[in-house]
Amino acid sequence: MMRALSIAIPVATFAAIAVGWQLLASYGGFPPKLVPGLGVIADAFVRLAGNGILLAATIATLYRLIGGFALAAIIGVSLGILMGRRQWIEDTVLPIVSFLYPIPGLAYAPLFVLWFGLGDVPTILLVGVSSSFTITINAWRGVKSVKPVWLRSAEVMGAGDADIFRRVVLPGALPYVMIGLRLGLAQAWRILIAVEMLMSVQRGLGWLIFGAQTFLNTDVMLATIAVIGAIGILLERQVFARVERYTVVRWGMVAA
Asked: Residue 157 — φ and ψ, nearest 5°?
């Protein structure tokens, strides 16, 4: 029953939004060029999918996302764990991370263009660096959340530093690390789409939206936005939900 409701409620929500949009397009008094109906948007999606433009743009964007998020995950998790395990690293790095974290990722875009030029390299680096701060802070909080009594108990039982880290610290911090990775991926996804409009990349979903705006192809923009949202949901449901189910949920550290 609960599983059926968890599926029915989102479906009903999206259906209500679709009906509301169609009513707005039909009776809202807006020009069809600016507020196209669902049929026009669907036709644009089929056209883009059929000629290969949408597939090429999606592949290019996912390539940059994987590269940028992998960089952010490596930097964020490693730095966050080091901050949590070594006080001198925390005292040194935390003020820097706290200063850079609130700055929007797009604010760094002009600097990365000056330093690395245009194209994929600055895009991946910008996505990786700007989304790593969220992962760093959550990984650090996760290590700090490990109860001292767990560490002392492991030491009393003769566990070394490596065993304590592998069997106590890492499992205890993992729920926070997973939250950080989820938030980091969402941030990387948002930054990437915006950056693709600024970095003069050859292909990409952001590039497709920017080009459609130039020619006032609102149907293409909305079809691409729908694809962006669908990919975000798939990443959330098929990647992180599965990893959590086989780790922290299975271990009883969080509720299913």
From this structure: -80, 5
Which residues touch 231 (CB under 8 Å, ≥6 apart)? Answer: 58, 62, 189
Answer whether 67's CB lies under 8 Å from 121's CB. no
Amino acid at 239: V
Q: How far is CA 143 from the centre of its chain?
A: 22
Amino acid at position 173, single letter:
A
Buried/exposed code over 85-118 (b: 16+ C-beta within 10 A; e: otherwise): beeeebeebeeebeeeeeeebeebbeebbeebee
Q: Using one digit for the tens of pLDDT, what is the confidence trace for 54-109?
A: 999 999 999 999 999 999 999 999 999 999 888 999 999 999 999 999 888 888 88
Q: What is the pLDDT of residues 41-53, one digit of tens each?
A: 999 999 999 998 9
Chain Cα centroid distance, residue 199: 19
Sign of CA dihedral 19, 21, 27, 33: negative
Cα–Cα distance measured from residue 206 to residue 196, given in angstroms and rounded to the nearest whole number: 5
Q: Which residue has the tokens 């935390």?
A: 94
Q: For the residues of 3-25, what is the DSSP string, one character each? A: HHHHHHHHHHHHHHHHHHHHHHH
Domains, in order of start, for the chain: 56-246 (1.10.3720.10)
